[in-house]
Amino acid sequence: MMTFILWCLLLVVCWPMALLALVLYPIVWLLLLPFRILGIAVGGVLELLRGIIFLPARVLTGRRA
What we know:
mainly alpha
């Protein structure tokens, strides 16, 4: 909601820049999509390593996550 309000303010102040932002937003989103996917993959690998490292402690204490 805040983004929309800021865009409306930009539209009032400088409408060419607001229209340019409106056109460029999907392009920037598509360019950044691989980095988001990479971040999800790295997070999954780190969670897997965390699970492997803490597995002996979980087995010895008998506690469930």
